[in-house]
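note to self: dont lose this again. the chain is below, predicted strucutre after it. 108 aa total, dont forget to put it in the shared folder this time
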Amino acid sequence: MFTQLYLQSTDPLRRTSMADMVPAMVGSIVFHTLLYTAFVNLVSFIFVGKLLSNMVNVRLVVSLVLIMCVGFVARVYHVQDIYRAYNYDSHQARGHIDHRFITWPFLS
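---
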């Protein structure tokens, strides 16, 4: 679903500008925020027997949005640091990036 955004945001050669990724980032952030909020409410309902209050949901959504916005920007700059660490060898950098980011941090 967001494969193109992942490939653009982890491209060591940075062929796509941040401005071009913004619409896809917004869609990804909205989608994942709704998904994670629904999951947390489901867990609350299963274990506590009721959904989270509106105030808790608002705080959760704001926190998730902030974390994901910072995370996208940080990922782009982290990829550039990895690229520099491999002496601008895009093949080695791509291997490292794919191994690193197709794990837990990619779930964001």
